[in-house]
């Protein structure tokens, strides 16, 4: 990094700038990952799937002071036992909604994304004294957080896993002793999201790796003393006990296993499917960070530590199981990548290419820049900071919906949300079973329950295999009306955006048994004609 010296001509006179912050270029670099997460976090739309039903259940819990135990939101799984493991998320969501509406929910979610990034970002900064390197590496988890960071319960898990990692990393390096916080955080985590088991796995990895180093390679190779190792084991047991502090007690583990292994979720939800190297999402969110990290570990001048290898391999295998697990991998691997990337000299990689004149000229230019004396331009840095802050204000959920910007839209929810159709059903007081695509189910619960119930919604694990089969086959079955007859369907609410809905839509339009009640650019509502 170029040496910076103060140049009086490059800034305001001292008497005029005493009250202004003395921002350096390093401060702006440090802000880049945070600004990215906040800015794009503000712009994330409220998803059709896996948000709205949480908000409705939060309303029920707050108003009734009771957690629902059976399903009453769907017509195909009504009365089935319903484990509401993340009940605390629903309460938080509804209270935030009641206090500040949807803008406050989106703002709170962006804050949680920053809370997930900061501990990992801090570890990246500690891993190397090369500031810009740590910033670039921190952009990897920032991108994953942005992609998976829409308002839903797993965002709480991002922040908690990151905090667990930070605490365990510092304890392992004997820098801070905050292990006592892990059982406390687990009491919250087990009531927020099913990924709490990752926290237990993280503690177990640190404990096992340190035990292997001590008992296999000898006490001198271990980082922690016997007493410190015992303390970590005790904390693991206390954290396991903390997972029992939830309404389901030990049964919560069965719920987590049932959701994680549910075949319907893997069939209907793309995030539950393994990442594909030939798709942008899979390459950007898992395979890209994976291969970069693998190459860095292979070429690093420092031999990888056992705990780093264990973390890398464990979360890489986990990431291979489903696309949604890529975010855990990038959160864990970022500090490891920063640490070992710092040991690789770029000159060693470029040296074989210096026989090319263009590359050699570029290397000389970089060397000259490194030796140059660069003035600190406080005024310019402040102006850049003001621009960044202004952009964040303009894209905040309190501002941008009112600007009429076509790029970001004028609503906080996804454009495909069937607001108009739900308004029509509510205003007309329509009664009778509705068949709809799964993506509409959550919003239907929020808008129309208890007058209407979903056919299928984001809680895919709750529905019987026969229902899942009928749902999937109906869109491609020429005799779909006969298949749906067993559910006494009176209305069809279909999406114009979902390609699989087109065949059913076209058939219903030309059928003498159905008529159009409502239609807009997003959806179409049919009613069955009584004969």
Q: Report how far the terminal alpha carbons are from each other.
A: 80 Å
The percentage of residues in β strands lies in 5-15%
Average pLDDT reading: 88
Biggest sheet descriptor? 4 strands, mixed
Order of helices and strands: EHHHHHHHHHHHHHHHHEHHEHHHEHEE
Please, what is the oligomeric state? single chain
Helix/strand-derived category reads mainly alpha
Q: Helical residue percent? A: 55-70%
Using DSSP, what is the number of strands?
6
Number of helices: 22
What topology, given as strand order, has the largest sheet?
Answer: 3-4-6-5
* Shape, per Cα inertia axes: globular
Poorly predicted tracts of residues = 1-10
What is the C-alpha radius of gyration, as a whole number of Å?
27 Å
Structure, described:
- This protein is mostly helical and 531 residues long.
- It is built from 22 helices and 6 strands.
- The protein has helices at 14-17, 25-43, 52-64, 87-127, 131-148, 154-172, 181-189, 196-217, 226-242, 251-260, 263-268, 280-299, 306-321, 326-341, 346-350, 357-371, 378-394, 419-428, 438-448, 465-474, 480-485, 502-510, and strands at residues 3-6, 373-376, 433-435, 489-495, 514-519, 523-528.
- It has a 4-stranded mixed sheet with strand order 3-4-6-5. A two-stranded parallel ribbon has the order 1-2.
- α2 runs parallel beside α5 (131-148) and α4 runs parallel beside α14.
- It is globular, with a radius of gyration of 27 Å.
- Residues 1-10 have low confidence and may be disordered.
